[in-house]
Amino acid sequence: MQPDTTRIRHDIHDLREQTITLDALATRRIRVRHAGTHARMSSAPTPLNLPAADLLDQIHALARRLAGAAGLRYGRRMDAHDMLKGLDRTEPCETLAARADAWDIIRLIDDATWHAQQLTEPDPSHRCIGICPRCGAGAWIPETQPITGDYRCPECGHLAALAGITQAHELRLLTSGTVGTAADLCRLLTACGIAIKRNTITQWRKRRRLTPLGQDEHGHPVYALADILLLRRAVDRSDCHR
Fold it and tell me: What is the DSSP string of 72-95?
């Protein structure tokens, strides 16, 4: 039995709505105060949430596949939301519903929506620790699970060491150019399996071991994530040699 057009359109519409929140979560403008100047907005959105950015890329790839399956043409510069908007119509949904793999299409859409909801409305029982090294799908584990053993990707079946996934994610964070408040960065690091308390970052600043880049729109200090990760490594090495 084939799914009806309404089901597919409803699922596509839900995913389309999720991309709006995901985009806001993945990028945010930071207000930076420079010495002797007025506060200004940075010229481009600054990535604050790599899992959200990764998921947007995956949804974009899915939207391209769906558009191709529905026989739609699309421009190279169309983002995920725009492509899903083009699919969120009766005619392309009828084409998708009539395909032999229609239920597989629904599964892919529903999986993407579930992962989006995990980021926009976090389930405290799970956390994202990085991405699958083979297919790029988000790697989610129970909150209480230690970073030991292996992880099997539910999307492609690839088996990878949890430690390797978190280390690769830490490297991506280190080279991402990400900036944010202490609270923002602590949440990111927790998702990567790195435990740094917000108060620790504050104490590093007070001891002048860490220099803020500026302030956000609420006047909170903004830091470079790379500075925090490098300082953490230095502190860990110092502790090991005591």
Answer: ----TT--HHHHHHHHSSHHHHHH
Q: Note whether 35 and 212 are within 8 A (CB).
A: no
* 153 neighbors 160 (Cβ within 8 angstroms): yes
Question: CB within 8 A of 101, min separation 6: which ones?
Answer: none
Where exactly are the structural domains of the chain? 1-121, 123-173, 176-240
Which residue in this structure is represented by tokens 């990764």? 54
Which pLDDT value is given to residue 170? Answer: 80
Please state which architecture CATH assigns to domain 176-240. Answer: Orthogonal Bundle (1.10)
Ranges of residues in the chain whose predicted pLDDT is under 70: 27-49, 122, 191-193, 238-242
Q: Per the structure block, which two tokens stand in for 165?
A: 């996934």
Give the SS3 label for residue 215.
Answer: strand
CA dihedral 54, 55, 57, 59 (to 10 degrees): 170
Of 170, 137, 140, the closest CA to residue 155 belongs to 137
Give the separation between CA 18 and CA 118, rounded to whole angstroms: 11
Do strands 150-152 and 159-161 pair parallel, antiparallel, or not at all (unpaired)?
Answer: antiparallel
| pTM, to two decimals | 0.62
Q: Give per-residue burial for 87-116: e unless 16+ CB within 10 Å, then b.
A: bbeeebbebbbeeeebeebbebbebbbebb
